[in-house]
Design goal:
The protein is an alpha/beta fold. The protein contains 16 helices and 13 strands. The chain has a 10-stranded mixed sheet with strand order 10-9-8-7-6-5-4-11-12-13, covered by helices on one side. The protein has a 3-stranded antiparallel sheet with strand order 1-2-3. The longest helix has 18 residues. The protein starts with a helix and ends in an 18-residue tail after the last helix.
């Protein structure tokens, strides 16, 4: 531990004050480290007005002063037409999309609030001729831009992206399965083209990985995904739970994983990670599937495994600049360039922030409530009609409802989600 904090002293990229102390942004290793007030002082940071509250109350504030990262959907334009697209992207994009000037203004606001990372995506943001300029501008303002891309574009776009690759902290190519598994998830055969992008990007950057949306039909092919990542000398595999958002609302029932698969997820990926010596990440919506295995809460906190982070650790923004709690959530009544004013508003982000007081059984009595936060709000809203309810795909929730004679998962008809006030 002492050696680790010696690293903090040597390689800080930045620091943000918080009520409990602050957050240190490291470059080596790449990490955000939460430190208390005493540690912050020892690192040389001066007193802050945020530290005016008594020491014993410093951990009682649930909300950070700003999110750690922002997920920006730079465009809704994409020619792929994937059957489960979370944004419902089209070849022409959407009306009212922001351009370079507006996104620079948003980055100014995020930098002023102390946000550390940007996750840039779409649609397919690699199609934007100014993507490199946005990434460079984010760097200038002290933020680390990361990119998710499909790889499904022509040689000219790929060559341009290869030239921009050094600007990004991490680039993940979306590969939801190998060969036929990819086609089963996306609705068309695009694996070879996505692989071409992986190879080209890996030649110029070591910080390349893949994003893999896990579905009922592709779960058994996860071993092939890990083997592929290893063969391409990639650094990480990030697994994402399929969510009912965009075109995914209509395909959700057919593509979402079964309860049996969710219960098998953790042992499956731990075995694959060890076998292929790869780092694996799970998106926050998978936290109920992790807690099912009764991992000690202390260990989960150490590994920074948290449930729904929307409206707290992260925020999102649609292509029109409208602010969201996360990439899959409906917009709120604010724009991302007005984050500061909205962040402190009573009732901001609705159910995404009411998880503690709204917790019903079995979440209310669960040892993991403070970490899991009731699971995925987007799944819950779709399946139960109320985003404040417990995640209906959580194994514990399923078992509890079965014991009480309730239906485990009952999806409502596909519809547009409402704007959150």
């Amino acid at each position: 531990m002492l050696r680790y904090f010696a690293v903090i002293q040597r390689t800080p990229r930045g620091f943000r004050y918080e009520r409990f102390g602050g957050i240190v942004h490291l470059t080596r290793p790449r990490a955000l480290v939460f430190v208390d007030r005493d540690r912050a002082r020892r690192l040389g940071y001066r007193e802050s007005r945020l530290w005016d509250r008594p020491e014993e109350e410093r951990w009682n504030e649930e909300r950070l002063s700003a999110p750690l990262e922002a997920h920006l959907q730079l465009t809704n334009r994409c020619e792929a037409g994937c059957q489960g697209c979370y944004t419902g992207a089209t070849p022409t994009g959407a009306a009212g999309e922001w351009g370079l000037a507006e996104w620079k203004r948003a980055i100014d606001e995020l930098a002023a609030r102390g946000v550390f990372h940007l996750a840039l995506g779409g649609g397919e943001s690699a199609l934007l001729p100014w993507l490199g300029e946005i990434a460079e501008y984010a760097r200038e303002r002290g933020l680390v831009p990361n990119l998710t891309t499909s790889g499904l574009y022509d040689d000219d776009v790929l060559a341009r992206l290869v030239g921009w690759a050094p600007l990004f902290g991490q680039i993940n190519v979306s590969i939801d399965g190998v060969d036929n598994d990819y086609a089963a998830v996306r609705g068309f055969s695009g694996f070879q083209k996505a692989d071409r992008a992986v190879v080209a990007l890996r030649k110029v950057s070591k910080h390349v990985g893949i994003n893999c949306v896990v579905t009922r039909g592709s779960f058994d092919g996860l071993g092939r995904v890990f083997a592929y990542a290893k063969s391409r000398k990639l650094r990480e595999v990030e697994l994402l739970r399929f969510k009912p958002s965009g075109r995914g609302i209509k395909t959700y029932e057919a593509l979402r994983c079964t309860d049996e698969q969710h219960r098998a997820l953790v042992p499956t990926i731990l075995k694959l990670a060890r076998k292929h010596r790869l780092r694996v990440r799970l998106d926050c919506s998978y936290t109920p599937m992790v807690t099912h295995h009764r991992i000690k809460p202390k260990v989960m906190r150490w590994l920074a495994i948290y449930g729904c982070a929307g409206g707290d650790l992260l925020v999102g923004a649609k292509a029109s600049g409208m602010l969201t709690a996360c990439s899959f959530a409906p917009p709120v009544e604010a724009r991302v360039d007005g984050l500061g004013d909205y962040w402190e508003r009573d009732g901001a982000f609705g159910a995404f922030r009411r998880w503690r007081e709204a917790a019903a059984e079995p979440c209310r009595s669960c040892d993991y409530l403070a970490l899991c936060r009731g699971g995925c709000r987007v799944v819950t809203m779709h399946a139960r009609g109320d985003a404040s309810e417990p995640d209906p795909e959580c194994p514990r929730v399923i078992d509890w409802r079965a014991a009480h004679g309730e239906t485990a998962v009952s999806s409502t008809p596909a519809r547009r989600l409402p704007v959150i006030a």
